[in-house]
Amino acid sequence: MATEEVPYFTNAETGYVPAKLAHRTSSFQPLSLFRFVLNHVIPDTVRFLVQLIPLILSGLVGLVVPSKRKSIHGHTALVTGGANGLGRALCLRLAQEGCHVAVVDIDLAGAQRTVEDVRLLGVKSEAFLADIANYEAVDRLRLEVESKLGPVDVLVNNAGLLAVLSLSEGKATDLERIINVNLLSHFWTIRTFVDGMKQRRRGYILAVSSILEFLTIFYFPSHQKGYIPMPRAVSYVATKFAVRGMMQALERELAMDGFGETICATTLFPTFIATRKELMDLLSDLSLDEKLAILTPESVANTAVEGMLRGYRSIYAAPFFIRLFMYLSELLPSALSALLIETIMGDVPSLMDRTKRSK
């Protein structure tokens, strides 16, 4: 069976080709509009409302009855940025669940210290030196991890650079590095490991974003949500916003391809964690160190793993009042957006059907 590559970028070869709308005119035609409403709008609206009812009921049940917790005992987990801070705490927490842990970091000495502590919990662990912002390095990493620990079933994209750096500060290469580590590395690791998860029909992808984007509501009310969530960290916040959107799209794509129940895509939104000194200095400069509850890496790791194992798509590691606000404001966004997409677009071809064609 021969395959041909889908032409993703046609403009590069053919130039711009204007679209042509067939069977349409600019004049107003009441009869055509009536047929459109009768054949499409009304049936789609009815179908949407009928399917919305169980979603609402499911959301209300979820408020009082927690989801069933799954086991990952014996699985292999890979944690990027696992040498220190939250990454180290996540490695230890996953080991407590019985996972074998691949600790990936550019700080090899720190990764080896994490490995020593993980092994004390009775599981296998290895340290790997890799620049996850480089696709070839991530591909080589997969081969090394599989040869030493086995195929990866739990991928934790934790590595990130928290630079107190605005758009006009630093060198261009500094901004590129932040984007590559905080965002592009997620693409490379998921692209590399998700195919194996699909073949085994099991897997977890946990991405660490940030709750910085939401704190505007409480501490910067003069700014609109999503535009200036935290001064002096514009590049960092931009990448965390992008991770959020990427994971939501990935979750929807996995569901559309039939992996919604077997591969869980989860995004963690932690508030401030007592890890890096520069973060604590920034909070002090903004007079926020006394207003905000600073969490420990261990408590955030526990919240993240517990939520992931219960199949939560979004996890808020934050003080209670922030968690409550975020949960109430986004009670059913994933389910509602999925229903809207299915209602409007209908059946969408799977990724395999789209990228492989038989001659």
Q: Could you walk me through the main structural features you see in this protein, from its secondary elements to its overall organization?
A:
The longest helix has 35 residues, at 30-64. The radius of gyration is 23 Å and the shape is globular. Helix content is 51%, strand content 11%. Strands 3-2-1-4-5-6-7 form a 7-stranded parallel beta sheet, with helices on both faces. The protein has helices spanning 11-14, 30-64, 85-96, 108-119, 135-148, 172-200, 216-219, 234-256, 277-285, 297-309, 320-329, 333-345, 351-355; strands at 76-80, 100-105, 125-129, 154-157, 203-208, 263-270, 314-317. It is α/β, with parallel strands linked by helices and 359 residues long.
* Helix content class: 40-55%
If helices are DSSP runs of H or I spanning 4 or more residues, what is the number of helices?
13
Instruction: State the separation between the terminal residues, measured CA to CA.
Output: 7 Å
Widest beta sheet: strand line-up: 3-2-1-4-5-6-7
Order of helices and strands: HHEHEHEHEHEHHEHHEHHH
State the shape: globular
Uncertain segments are 214-229
Q: Strand count, sense and closure of the main sheet?
A: 7 strands, parallel
What is the strand content?
5-15%
Q: Which class do the helix and strand fractions yield?
A: alpha/beta
* Mean pLDDT value: 79
Task: Tell me the Rg in angstroms.
Answer: 23 Å
Please provide the count of β strands.
Answer: 7
